[in-house]
Amino acid sequence: MIAIIDYGVGNLFSLRSSLAMIGTQAEVTADPARIAAADRLILPGVGAFGDARAQLAATGLDRVVKEAAASGKMLMGICLGMQLLFEKSYEFGEHEGLGLIPGQVVDMTPRITPGLKVPHIGWNGLEITKKDHPLMRGLEDGDCVYFVHSYCAVDCADSLVARTEYGGEITAAVARGNVCGCQFHPEKSGRVGLQILRSFCEMEG
Amino acid sequence: MITKRIIPCLDVRNGRVVKGVNFAGLSDVSHPVDLARYYSESGADELVFYDITASAEGRALFTDILREVASTIFIPLTVGGGIRGVGDFERVLSCGADKVSVNSGAIANPELIADAAKRYGSQCVVLSVDAKRVDGAYHVFAKGGRVDTGMDALEWIRRGLDNGAGEIVLNSIDTDGVKKGFDLPMLADVCAFANVPVIASGGAGCAEDFVTLFKEIPKVDAGLAASIFHFGEVSIPSLKETLARSGVTVRRV
């Protein structure tokens, strides 16, 4: 069973449906016991980093997630959920992340070609930097996934698995041991997205 | 590189897809879930569902269909029609919509854009504008393009952006249904200042019209059409083939 961590942000209908589509049982839950019982965790998220981080802390779920990750349980962050995995974010101030993957989250505007629209919204091609990573199984360079974000992860070092090009290089997917994340929305990325979710469900840390 | 999006629009009434030509003379085309699946598999980058039902029963039927579509199709879904308040956002978002498009509802209550953007984020709020040339200016039309509000469309869009609209669908009533191409001058005027994605709507008659759109107005992010897709006049795979051959970056499936 996959636990989709419910800390009061975001619309989880599509994520739940997409996991059902690939034949995986998923439960949206905030219950630490259910999270502990799950085989795998997904940390979703939309909105602002500071608000989401505060929600995670207020519900005590930040500790639950960190402990689960430390125990070796597979964890995937999606969109803002991926950004929360990093050490720090500079979205409207400076916020501590969960610190599960080295790196920081910064405004993409000064890092990309001036004049490009931010948020980065739409389907963009993946450039897979770790071709043999299990999360990227069955994918090819150029496969498109759906992005909606204004901030991006930087200094991810050897955790980078795939990036995309939007007037500069943008982190698309990261992985470090049993913890991984996608900046894009796999649950909204058609066949390619379902393939990534399937891979996550089969991955062993 | 970010791809240009191709978006079929499905007008739904009483559980069926319909399409108006110049907003009149509706005719039944197909079943929404089947059509949505067909489009998704043929490479549509996003789907827009327009609820043109007036009755409460029709509205309930629409959300049932939306839920069914969102359970089986995993590309972005935008929903519009009958969005009057934040409660309507909640209703369709909880059934699997990713974005909600406001038109007459925002004209009647301009606060709606800001309220929804604050609650759900700008990425969720699409401002859909039906515009038509009147006395040398673009006017905003309400009620499915039937009523001239007298408002200047460019001003209205600027205000919508200030209030947090995350995307603009610009539908030109002048070119809608005519099938002679998108309204390039009107689109250029909006793209000159819009800093969010602009989706062109109204006037596509053939694949070449999309090539012209993206080549002439590079700041347009997506092209939306209905009948040419519904009646099979343009197939999405061949459209994307044509676009790719002309040097426009598109997503291939």
Structural features, described:
The complex is a heterodimer of chains A (205) and B (253). With 205 residues, chain A is an alpha/beta fold. Chain A has one domain (2-202): 3-Layer(aba) Sandwich (Rossmann fold), CATH 3.40.50. Chain A has six helices and 14 strands. In chain A, the strands form three sheets. Chain A has an eight-stranded mixed beta sheet with strand order 2-1-3-4-14-13-12-9. A four-stranded mixed beta sheet of chain A has the order 6-5-7-11, covered by helices on one side. The longest helix of chain A has 13 residues, at 190-202. The radius of gyration of chain A is 15 Å and the shape is globular. The model of chain A has no long low-confidence stretch (mean pLDDT 95). By secondary structure, chain B is α/β, with parallel strands linked by helices. Chain B has one domain (5-245): Aldolase class I (TIM Barrel, Alpha-Beta Barrel). Chain B is 37% helix and 28% strand. Chain B contains ten helices and twelve strands. Chain B has helices at residues 32-42, 56-72, 86-93, 104-108, 111-120, 153-162, 184-191, 207-216, 227-230, 236-245, and strands at residues 5-13, 16-21, 24-30, 47-51, 77-80, 99-102, 125-134, 137-142, 147-152, 167-172, 198-201, 222-225. Chain B has an eight-stranded parallel β-barrel, surrounded by seven helices. In chain B, α8 (207-216) crosses α10. The two termini of chain B are 16 Å apart. Chain A binds chain B through residues 11, 13-14, 17-18, 20-21, 46-47, 117, 119-125, 144, 146, 148, 165-166, 187-191, 193-194, and chain B through 1-3, 5, 40, 45, 70-72, 74-76, 93-96, 98, 121-123, 166-167, 195-197, 221-222, 251-253.
